[in-house]
Amino acid sequence: METTDIERAFLDKIHTIQFSRRGFVQVATRAAVAAAVGPFILPGRTLAQAQRPVVVIYGVPWDTLDPHNHIATWIESITGNMFEQPVEMSSPIDPVNGWRPLLATSWKRLNPTTMQFKLREGVKFHNGEEFTAEAVKFTIDRIHGRVHKEFKGAVLSYYRIIDRADPVDKYTVNVITTQPDPILLNRMSGFHTRIVPPKYYATNSLAHVATNPVGSGPYRFVSWVKDGDLVLEANEQYWGGAPDIKKVIFRTASEPSVRVSALLAADADLVHAVPVEEIDFINKSGKAYVSHTASNRVALWRLERHKPPMNNQKVRQAMNYAANMDGLLKTVYGGMGKRVSTMVGAWHFGHDDKIPFYPYDPNKARALLKESGVSLPIQINVHTIQGRYPKDKDMAEGIAAEVSKLGKDYVSTKVTVYEWGTHLKRQNACENDGITHNSWGNWMFDADMILFPWLHTLPSTDPGAACRPAKPEWDRLIDEARTTLDQGKRKKVYSDLQRQLWDDPPFIFGHHVADIMGVSSRLAWKVRQDEMVWLKEARFKK
Amino acid sequence: MWRYILRRLAQAVLVIFGVLLLVFVIMQLTGDPASLMLPPDSPAEDIQRVRIMYGLDRPLYVQFVRFLFGDIGTREAGRTVRTFASGGGWLEVPVKPRGGVIRGDFGESLRYREQPALGVVLERFPRSLELMAAAFLYAVLLSLVFGLLCALRPATLLDQGIRVLAILGQSMPSFWLGLLLILVFAVWLGWLPAMGSGTWWHLVMPAITLGSLSLARNTRLVRSGMLDVLNEDYVRTARAKGLTERLVVAKHALKNTAIPLVTLWGLDVGVLFGGAVITESIFAWPGTGRLVIESVTRRDFPVVQAAVFFIALIFVLVNLVVDLVYGWLDPRVRVGR
Amino acid sequence: MGELWHSLRRGKAACLGAAILLVMVLSAVLAPVVAPHDPLQAEITKRLRPPVWREKGAAENLLGSDQLGRDVLSRTIYGSRVSLMVGIIAVLISGILGVVLGMVSAFQGGRLDALIMRIADVQLAFPFILLAIAVVAVVGGGLLNVILILGVTGWVSYARVVRSQVLSVKEKEYVEAARALGSRSLVLIFRQILPNVMTPVIVLATFNVASYMVAEASLTFLGLGVQPAIPSWGIMLADGREYMRAGWWMAVFPGLALMLTVLSINLVGDWLREYLDPRLRHTE
Fold this sequence. Notes:
The complex is a heterotrimer.
Chain A: H1 4-41, E1 54-58, H2 73-79, E2 87-89, E3 99-101, E4 104-111, E5 114-119, H3 133-143, E6 162-169, E7 172-177, H4 184-187, H5 198-203, H6 206-211, E8 219-224, E9 230-234, E10 247-252, H7 256-264, E11 270-271, H8 279-285, E12 288-303, H9 313-322, H10 325-330, E13 338-339, H11 362-372, E14 378-384, H12 392-404, E15 411-417, H13 420-428, E16 435-441, H14 448-455, H15 472-483, H16 487-503, E17 507-520, E18 523-524, E19 539-540
Parallel strand pairs in A: 1-10, 1-11, 14-15, 14-16
Antiparallel strand pairs in A: 2-3, 4-5, 5-7, 6-7, 8-9, 9-10, 11-17, 12-16, 12-17, 13-17, 18-19
Chain B: H1 2-29, H2 34-37, H3 44-53, H4 60-69, E1 80-84, E2 90-94, H5 117-152, H6 157-171, H7 174-188, H8 200-230, H9 233-240, H10 245-282, H11 288-297, H12 301-329, H13 331-336
Antiparallel strand pairs in B: 1-2
Chain C: H1 2-10, H2 12-29, H3 31-34, H4 72-108, H5 110-125, H6 128-139, H7 143-153, H8 155-170, H9 173-180, H10 185-221, H11 233-240, H12 249-276, H13 278-283
Helix pairs in contact in C: 2-4, 2-12, 4-5, 4-7, 4-8, 4-10, 4-12, 5-8, 6-7, 8-10, 9-10, 10-11, 10-12, 11-12
């Protein structure tokens, strides 16, 4: 079988193998030498601290740089460095007095459906276009599909109420709503009211503007590799003064420990979603520190009231008594976050601090279960996701464990983890029973923005309609509050509604999600409450 | 020979078609992408609008035909669909045109809004290729060296040591290896960048992480293959004839070991693609592996389809070449066909 | 049988491997008896306790506790059940599928061979991870699904190896001789060919038992694995990666258990391979 033919063929082959091996050895040798001396000669590591670009690492990637074509707070955060909107929220958040002028300098209501904005003069977009009332009109037209027929704003459902923007003169614009809107100012603070230059966004293709954004903000776009680096540079002509940091790179690393490692290895300056257990370690490293806050996002666990056993009010109450939210926040959540008495967060409009937290009371929970009339023990399924929000799975497992502690005669629990898309699909189809993890970024800082989407009865064709509480009284209160401009009355309505929620809990009431960011020592920076990372607020330490 | 190659090419087309069908069906089963493109509480009208725009409202077979052959020749081109608006009245929704796979158009990405799916994949592939090539070289060359060393000195300390290392290499999930490497070389020693890409330095840890499983497996198989061959009669004959050990190894043993190894290397391409998903996620490497997993979780059908098509195409071509080489090295196989 | 025992005793490494494996199997079977705690019982006030010999350790949790205060030792013991089950059952599924299809392919040749090899090509060309995600998305994660995913997708390498081995063995002198003597093909397969193709299959299978155990961990890393209601080494490793500094024991002990098991399976597999291949036995 060893013909000379094969031998020759094989020897030819051997030659090529040897050849490539020789090549590899060269490369490998070079690599080894470089690895040995690299730390001393690597460019970037020897540059002056202040000249190195600031690297920001998120845990999730972004899909587009079109400010009107995304649904994610982190994309809102990133694009917020390039685009601006009429008004801006302060941090700490204050939905009554916290509104700051940005592209608008002042505003007043002319009538229940019209608000007039005076615009900042002399602002230029990065491409040289002038910012005027026409740009505001164009932006509102764009999200409604009146610019490109095939394009509508991705979160239009929150902006349909804004009918149009009518320019009065070059720097005055009237924003008209279809009905009185008590939270119009909130809507003017981001997402679909990020103002874009009309000429550029009208004449370029959607594909082009999605990857080549032009705004009026403190940073201008340089380059973007999808799932790779997004590079921005300071807008030296920025109306608010050129920012301190001249070059910024945004990256994504899905592993929390990798983000922390990058921070400690000086490969990153601002890293998002640091695990609570790493905080001490980072603070003691001398290379970085942690800035954290209870953020605008609220985590809550839906009690699936359309199916047994959660169709029983007493069982739902029992779950809130048994969950030991304080204990879990103190341990699993590392003392971060902040409890929420019902659904409306501590600084959201409509919050009522007279409404107490559910206390941890396992005996009461047992008593309620006995009174409820359901046959014990009940089986409770806990449906959760993993790794999308800080400690999502750990908290779900923690709740399950706390509920289990009621005893085997009362309950048994089972935790199931879903992939995000499946989780959403199951919720839309109302497939879950028991308890489902939810999380809601209330970026309008108003009770309406969480109560309406989660409680209001939906048209039966809408996904998720079948598992709504469908209580006419709640619908009535929500509708009342969203159509009156009398903020005092709104507050009262929301207080009433929240008391009812407390009594008939649609959720295991949760907590503000912690926003924990790692910051390199060369930067002075404080995390905002609204999940936004705006580099104009960062400074190099002197 | 040419007829054989042609036949294999025809088979490759069939395989690709099978892959396309499979990925199409599987993605359909995973759910509706429209609900992931809108806020979770979106009204039915908005969801329906997105579904119409991307052609997701059509019956499955129509979607598949459009996917393969596009609009031209059908009534789909430039279609506008009227649907009920929630506020009453009608809503006109323009349908995005499709060129079909045969024209290289997999449609627009649902995640990277407005971007052509195949373009997104092709844009990312060079980065994966870079990483996979480095990992492949690392795995194949080191495994040959280790395997040979073991086979030539079986049951020695060296042999045992390498074998235990190889087994440990296999027993450590690659995500752990990656995280440990970062901890040691980026955080403690500060030699290598913790993540990202751009320079040669960025390549070192991901390549080791990705290649280690193949390295361990190949080392093992090179060793056992060599041992098998060294015990074959003809090698013993060669030894008996008084040939030096080195010559025996080079001329006879290595050659016969190489034949099954070539098939293995072909399969390694698939292993590397699979491993790239995890490695690229850990090191934030902007390649196709990460693209695939992100796209699946976001139900970005066009990109998943384009990526799977592309990966399958490469895999099939590589293995076609491997088979040809295999037949060329071992005429018995060729005769067997 | 005596011969087997003799051979086993001769290989010290194999003995060590067999011993470790036996411990693992026993602890899997006897988990409810051996484990000091319920592996699912959480006690958040006792979370992240280090192992007993470290400062702040407690005898209650010999190997420490995890992020929810569950006992790492008990979870590791219970975890061996999942890992062994995943490894062994998945290999049986993929091995049997692969050997049968490979033999059929090699012997029948022609269209059937072509069909099987095309299906194999489709299977190989289709990214495994995608299949895993799809299955999880459609039918949900869980132990059974993980086993099925690994088992069903793993057959190709067996089929290919068996097929190529059979093709090269088929023409060998002893097979030719047997055929010339008029052996029926079934007899031929079992007497002459199967033993000759089993060596690489066993090497592959031992490797795969181990690699499936690792794959279970990787699937869990991607959030596609066994559900938290069943403690597995994969879940422990994946959970532990966020606590590499704050609670290294969470991942180190299941990791060690995984490594030891993989190591011992491989040692036993190597011995088995040498035992099965008479030529090797006589030369070493």
